[in-house]
């Protein structure tokens, strides 16, 4: 009996054991939490895929993540900075059960500044998983429209711009030669053409009482003595660059190490203008005038026809001869070269060289006649090219009422400037910052280089000299640009020698350079707009009158 009971108990235990084992379930496997990812990011409710421009100074950044974030990791992971100063303090809030994070600067950001927004890997999800997206966004804040300098009258502003820019040619002139340095980093390298512009600026400076007549005369004596005695010349013509201490030619390029006839013409335009200004019977002024006349008469303009061709050539070198092989043909900045060549009493050229060489007998390429932005352009390339085409020659040549067989030059210069202006108003390339107050495309420095900007070569870089040197042609539009450059952008553009060479609001780049060929036309053309001084002086030269008449020009002053 006992044995039966024992067997029964053992059987129950075994059954119970097997019964429990049969009912047990496998262990639960918990999947790892998903990595945290950024789903969308917006700046002021706008999609933020590329750099955004003109952003207000307290923008809202809205980020939607793939799941809730761990709030304790957010403040250190989100960073907003301009790249130089400490990170900007952010106000942070949460929505949608912590899966949406909203950040906003606590204080207003700086105007016209590029900011970088990043989220670093220290951000975690609420479950403690890592953040795996890559976030490196950029935006540029809107222009700070506050006035950077006290308001003054328009006339006072024009004087201030002339006087500040004048310092480039007075304070920064080469200490030995008195000539203009090519740019503010050129050391001993001076520029013959830029020095011609500088001489015209010197005359304007004396006339505006920036310096005395005696000071201006003394500087001119230094310049002329250097050009007579020290400066290297080639058939009477000067090189593009000179060493301002020794006078030896400095190569502009390998084969451009000799005469540059165009740069020589810019220099002579300035010297003849000064000759007409220093016109008293004082012995020093008489000697100065005689020396300038001798320098002008010494330029062998006709020799630069090469083999008596019906065109002038730009370069000649004593060791490369005519290998540069660049004929001077229009339409561009070189009208003054043909005018001075035709005006020379010693080495003059006939009208046939002007007609066949410069004007190409009025064929296409010289004559235009098409309209751009509903503005007709008499001469030149599409849209007129860079604005220096309408500046350099017309620092001395007065285009008002001036005509020849090919164009009315008052219309040419005015419409070229209007087309350039209208290009920035229409802004077909959608460059940030262009407007009726930010315009002007011409040759200038650009980020990493130099280019001749124009409506057909628009790299988003504005050069103040372009709009300001068009003051006689587009006075309303140029004055509006001047006020914007000075009052609104002045903290970035207005420096020791006037306005810096160029800037780009799109690239947020501001040059730290000044160039003689850009600073000079600002002073001269503002003066021509105000008084016509340089126009009146240059066109009063008897040689110039005779030369322009010989080429078929008509004007009230001829």
From TrEMBL:
Keywords: Signal. InterPro entries: Glycoamylase-like_cons_dom (IPR019282), SbsA_Ig (IPR032812). Residues 57-139 form the SbsA Ig-like domain. Residues 327-542 form the Glycoamylase-like domain. This is Ig-like domain-containing protein. It comes from Lacibacter sediminis.
């Amino acid at each position: 009996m006992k044995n039966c009971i024992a067997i029964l108990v053992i059987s129950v235990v075994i059954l119970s054991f097997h019964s429990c084992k049969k009912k047990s379930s496998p262990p639960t496997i918990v999947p790892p939490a998903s990595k945290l990812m950024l789903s969308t990011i917006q700046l002021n409710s706008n999609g933020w895929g590329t750099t955004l421009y003109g952003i207000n100074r307290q923008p809202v950044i809205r980020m939607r993540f793939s799941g809730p974030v761990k709030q304790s990791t957010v403040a250190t992971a989100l960073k907003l900075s301009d790249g130089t100063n400490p990170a900007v303090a952010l106000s942070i809030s949460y929505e949608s059960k912590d899966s949406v994070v909203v950040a906003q600067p606590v204080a207003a950001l700086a105007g016209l500044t590029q900011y970088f927004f990043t989220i670093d890997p220290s951000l975690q999800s609420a479950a403690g998983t890592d953040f795996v997206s890559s976030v490196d966004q950029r935006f540029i804040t809107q222009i700070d429209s506050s006035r950077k300098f006290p308001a003054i009258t328009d006339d006072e502003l024009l004087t201030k711009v002339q006087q500040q820019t004048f310092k480039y040619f007075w304070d920064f002139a080469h200490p030995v030669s008195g000539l203009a340095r090519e740019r503010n980093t050129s050391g001993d390298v001076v520029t013959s053409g830029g020095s011609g512009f500088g001489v015209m600026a010197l005359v304007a400076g004396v006339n505006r009482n920036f310096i005395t007549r005696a000071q201006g005369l003394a500087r001119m004596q230094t310049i002329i003595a250097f050009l007579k005695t020290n400066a290297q010349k080639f058939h009477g013509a000067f090189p593009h660059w000179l060493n301002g201490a020794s006078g030896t030619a400095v190569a502009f390029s390998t084969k451009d190490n000799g005469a540059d006839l165009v740069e020589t013409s810019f220099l002579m335009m300035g010297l003849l203008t000064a000759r007409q200004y220093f016109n008293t019977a004082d012995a020093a002024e008489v000697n100065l005038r005689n020396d300038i006349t001798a320098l002008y008469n010494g330029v062998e303009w006709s020799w630069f026809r090469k083999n008596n061709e019906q065109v002038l050539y730009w370069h000649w070198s004593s060791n490369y001869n005519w290998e540069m092989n660049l004929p001077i043909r229009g339409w561009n900045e070189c009208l003054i070269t043909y005018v001075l060549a035709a005006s020379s009493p010693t080495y003059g050229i006939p009208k046939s060289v002007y007609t066949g060489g410069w004007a190409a007998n009025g064929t296409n390429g010289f004559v235009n006649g098409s309209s751009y932005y509903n503005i007709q352009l008499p001469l030149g390339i599409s849209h007129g090219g860079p604005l220096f085409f309408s500046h350099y020659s017309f620092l001395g040549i007065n285009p008002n009422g001036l005509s020849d067989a090919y164009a009315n030059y008052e219309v040419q210069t005015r419409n070229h400037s209007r087309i350039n202006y209208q290009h920035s108003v229409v802004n077909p390339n959608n460059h940030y910052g262009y407007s009726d107050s930010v315009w002007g495309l011409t040759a200038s420095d650009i980020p990493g280089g130099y280019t001749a900007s124009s409506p057909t070569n628009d790299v988003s870089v504005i050069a103040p000299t372009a709009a300001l040197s068009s003051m006689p042609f587009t006075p309303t539009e140029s004055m509006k640009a001047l006020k914007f450059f000075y009052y609104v952008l002045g903290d970035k553009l207005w420096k020791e020698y006037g306005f810096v060479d160029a800037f780009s609001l799109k690239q947020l780049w501001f040059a730290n350079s000044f160039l003689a060929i850009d600073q000079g036309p600002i002073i001269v053309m503002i003066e021509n707009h105000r008084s016509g001084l340089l126009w009146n002086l240059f066109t009063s030269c008897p040689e110039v009158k005779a030369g322009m008449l010989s080429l078929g020009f008509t004007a009230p002053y001829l």
